[in-house]
Amino acid sequence: MIFIDACLKKKTPYTPVWMMRQAGRYLSEYMQVRASAGDFLSLCRDYKKASEVSLQPVDILGVDAAIIFSDILVVPLEMGLELKFEKGEGPIFPKPIQTEEDLENLDIQKGVRNLSYVYDALKLTREKLDPSKALIGFCGSPWTIATYMIEGGGSKNYAKCKKILYQNPEFLHKILTKLTLALKLYVEEQIKAGANAIQIFDSWASALEKEAFFEFSFNYMLEISNYIKKKYPHIPVILFPKGISGFLDEINGNFDVFGVDWSTPLNLAKEKLASKYTLQGNMEPCRLYDKNSIKEGVEKILDIMKDTSHIFNLGHGILPDIPVGNAKYFIKLVQEKSSK
Amino acid sequence: MIFIDACLKKKTPYTPVWMMRQAGRYLSEYMQVRASAGDFLSLCRDYKKASEVSLQPVDILGVDAAIIFSDILVVPLEMGLELKFEKGEGPIFPKPIQTEEDLENLDIQKGVRNLSYVYDALKLTREKLDPSKALIGFCGSPWTIATYMIEGGGSKNYAKCKKILYQNPEFLHKILTKLTLALKLYVEEQIKAGANAIQIFDSWASALEKEAFFEFSFNYMLEISNYIKKKYPHIPVILFPKGISGFLDEINGNFDVFGVDWSTPLNLAKEKLASKYTLQGNMEPCRLYDKNSIKEGVEKILDIMKDTSHIFNLGHGILPDIPVGNAKYFIKLVQEKSSK
């Protein structure tokens, strides 16, 4: 699997490429399956359909890795925290975590068990997937998941999280510790079910000051990564903390790939991190609106990364209104232009 | 005015301090004036009331500078682009800019003339303000204002702007050039009316890749700054591009103060920029929820900046639900702890 080789800094015949949110709304085939499943959570919970949409971008676009279709918030959901996806509103936890008792009511064992639909989807997908293609499992970072559980949904200023962080940091650490424990077991089950690599999404890393980021987010991600790397050293771990280009000097620890968001200059990330990690990223997703911009972006990025370990990706998820033809052009262009 | 001295890198008896959005909803006195004015735009357009709320934080909190109460979007509004502030929705331009004709319909001269309520508010505020306190005028950066005019309001992915940027960059440059011309005249009128310094807010700087940031945003801010510094060399210009901690190496040009947002590590900004510019910022606004966190934040920042030119501020606007007592405590603490 050239994706896995690139993660582990081995030479590859070309630069492997995939896209965050590649199993998504820009594909009419995805929309059909999604419609047949009903709502978003029903699609996550139907392992056959989840597997089907996970495989679509491999078949349609020829990406080098499939990522299992799911959502980072199924973990608190299955631990017992009610979750709704309201149309146009994003995820809502109607009863956010406010007290120690709210936290105690969440059941790690039950959660990890209830998430069997994710493991079933991974198993089926790994069976159907070409052996040359990698299957990526994933989870959210404890911090990012916690922000939704505390705020009750998406947030602009993370005021509730920050109040806890400043006024009762021990409670925040308790929430994060419990989530970390659940996530270790969750990604371990994903690996047992066939995941070849694990990506940890820290979408709201940028909600924290530098010191707070390392204390409340990065350290917990590393704890998950350390757990995986100790038990499954051949499984690459990809960390993707978004919006922290000012903190790169202090990124360190036992993982394999650092995901670079598009707002971080790639040569800065290369200078700071490429000696230790494979870099993944980081094309600006809106470039996919326009073929000339795709070409310019691909050439620029391949040139920066020509002498170092690299997985090509967008620097954020693909947008729903990108023409499929442009996505295909992008994937093919990366694979062709990077061929040695 | 110790605020102006600090801008110009002169020694000051203590570190001057103010807060972005200091004339705002956390003050009951502001809420009263706002209620009497009707809606938000009516408050902007009533120069007496705008002046009254601009002065409140000086009287109530003892900040070292007043910033004139207004909004960055009054400029396109008065140039002829209809603007609404819907409750809970933020600003809406019902007829966003889509064509060259839409752009041609905007009238620079009329806009600069119609904005007389801002100049009147500045005159009145400067008259009433203690001579030791500075009065800050401001505008949005051409890029940030353009994002609203093109998207029709706030945006998550700036997809419409990006489509223009990639498919028709000349048109985006035309929009930015026209806005820059209007903004030069607008801030010049603000200076004539009594503004002692000008801050340019580039709130959506982080929506751009590095090269695009310099081409489509920073260069236009510099054009405004160059214009001001040439005609009014004693007037400090403050640039505040948000979320670009990865681009600091390349920040250069003729301005006085660089505003550091809270997500940018202050010692990184100091290392890269303090030899050239006074730094303004950058306490995390949620620290104001808690007095211990205020103290910790103030001491940390004063320690980093103890040997270099500094204006204390939050790294983003003050939040509406901050207790006024905490804001007072913050301002006093900065002034006391930094006294030499």
From TrEMBL, chains A, B:
Annotated binding of substrate, by residue: 21-25, 71, 148, 203, 316
Instruction: Cite the entry's keywords alphabetically.
Output: Cytoplasm, Decarboxylase, Lyase, Porphyrin biosynthesis
**GO biological process per UniProt:** protoporphyrinogen IX biosynthetic process from glutamate
* Major site of localization recorded for this protein: cytoplasm
Gene Ontology cellular-component annotations: cytosol
Family the entry assigns: Belongs to the uroporphyrinogen decarboxylase family.
Q: What is the protein's name according to its record?
A: Uroporphyrinogen decarboxylase
Q: Which organism does this record belong to?
A: Campylobacter sp. CCS1377
> What is the name of the gene encoding this protein?
hemE
